[in-house]
């Protein structure tokens, strides 16, 4: 294994500025959408008094989970001493903070009163898991920055591991905390379970790694930096494990729900009668988001093909969006069960008359706001890798894998 | 302004004074705050503000000698009657809400604020139909207050749960947490409102048991008055802590229940006959 050299991203100037231009446009549109929502009020969105969290929250939760998952690679490298992943540590840290900033920005801009951010900072309710999350998020940023320093600075060496361990623990707390935002809502059948916390942890591993792989392949390809097939294969295997993990937990989640007899209706609604939510579940979450990517990852031929790998990663992310759509929006659309054993036949406020679910359709401003957050995350990453030394010069197998493995494939080590 | 307002103490038109909030919850919150020592730097300003507010005797402290509540007798609630809903809308200026020009009727119906609504339900086994008004149940252990990140959702010492419109940031977590769908988010710019019930785009609101009447020492809510005026007498308002109050006596003699009693929220609104 060679010494790893890091350098700035030297993609040709015109292309780089073109990329920045596109990202800036996405961010700009997101900003306009936020202004539009802020100026008119949330009636311009599809959100209502029944479905109070909508598309922006799907994007935000996705980004926040991925932030934690992206840092997972750095953890594997430093804490578990898997040398092959070490060179990815810096990129992993950068991505983690960028994704977190993007996600939080969406959450803040979706508030009814984003101008009161200062109120949110000065007034804390310590019983609110939401308020605890504010600490978890700010702490995460600080730790990631310290982590990046320890990995990049000559003096940082001895601190890498302790900071890495701390970052790992913090990261797990953050994801579990995000899951608990939903898990502690006793009022809502679908959420009323501590199960969502571990589920979100495994989801974060999968989505964060998928995003990381896409960014890695894109940045390396644009500049012709070598990315060893073995290393890529390892990362894909890891992704496969995480995706399978999410699938497994999904099955357990719905099984445990169906065991409680009172939740039978909820489960059968999600699985069969939920319309768009059933479609999102089966087609988005299970088929396109889990089974197809698993098929690609473990397919002997497809798993070697760059385009198929990109497709698998993209599907994992889109499938993740679908699963969050079911978890977050579906659970609000399903009527609150206030009167067991009764059917509501009339209501002045849509209390699930005859069991009918609340309707929700995202509007364009909501989607643009969400994409804007993604744009911010990508913009930070693009600028970061350009001006600082985040990317290793080479991830050729011979350079990063332990010698016995590296030698086995000298032809791939095209340094 | 569309209808007459009761004469008011000027201080009552403004959002709730923080001193009203100085119940046991607040002190526990303060304690936890101190316990979380590492966070003190960020939190300190909030405590300073609070300490100043406590030193300002603008309103009489809300006392926990009372706990306000409602008892709804569903047997008396009339199918098709919406007197309580209309009275609530007028009392709180909700009838001043206007659909936005480009908004569809269907959207408006799901996005406008509703503090009190009528629900009609049928027993799946017996087919018996009941009518009842639903509103914030003024839980003793309110999930909305637990989850609110800024403490804008709060419970007064007299049991009334409400939102401080100065600190609500519009995150809507409380709406996710409420088991009764009692809360509304203000989705549009508020053009017309009553001084006693300040409302504003981007905040959450819900039934506050006509809190401005409480602070003037009046002994009823708009919904209960309207129902009584029609002779239905399905809604009884009163002090749950006063054993001599009509509501306490009725609760002693009549079988009643909380909606979703399984959640152990000890609601201040009770229902009989359902
Ligand atoms: S009914 Fe809902 S809004 Fe009212 S106190 Fe209980 S949880 Fe809060
Ligand atoms: S919407 Fe307002 S009252 Fe409700 S939880 Fe958020 S800050 Fe608190």
- What count of helical segments of chain A does DSSP give? 14
Look up the CATH topology of the largest domain in chain B.
Alpha-Beta Plaits
Largest interface: A-B, 55 and 71 residues
| CATH architecture descriptor name of the largest domain in chain B | 2-Layer Sandwich
Low-confidence stretches of chain A: 404-415
Which fold name corresponds to the CATH topology of chain A? Formate dehydrogenase/DMSO reductase fold
What is the tally of beta strands of chain B? 10
Average residue-wise pLDDT of chain A:
89
Structural class of chain A: mainly alpha
Any overview of this molecule?
The complex is a heterodimer of chains A (415) and B (274). By secondary structure, chain A is mostly helical. Chain A has one domain (3-409): Up-down Bundle (Formate dehydrogenase/DMSO reductase fold), CATH 1.20.1630.10. Helices cover 68% and strands 2% of the residues of chain A. Chain A contains 14 helices and three strands. A two-stranded antiparallel sheet of chain A has the order 1-3. The model of chain A is unreliable at 404-415 (pLDDT under 50). Chain B has 274 residues and is of the alpha+beta class. Chain B has two domains: 26-54; 64-272, Alpha-Beta Plaits, CATH 3.30.70. In chain B, 28% of the residues lie in helices and 15% in strands. Chain B has helices spanning 10-13, 24-35, 40-54, 83-91, 105-111, 143-147, 173-177, 211-215, 222-229, 246-253; strands at residues 68-73, 117-123, 129-134, 153-155, 161-163, 184-185, 204-205, 235-239, 256-257, 269-272. Chain B has a four-stranded mixed β-sheet. Chain B has a two-stranded antiparallel ribbon with strand order 2-3. In chain B, helix 4 (83-91) runs antiparallel to helix 9. The longest helix of chain B is centred in the N-terminal third of the chain and has 15 residues, at 40-54. The radius of gyration of chain B is 19 Å and the shape is globular. The complex binds iron/sulfur cluster (2 copies). Residues 136-139, 142-144, 161, 178, 180, 182-183, 206 of chain B line the site of one iron/sulfur cluster (SF4).
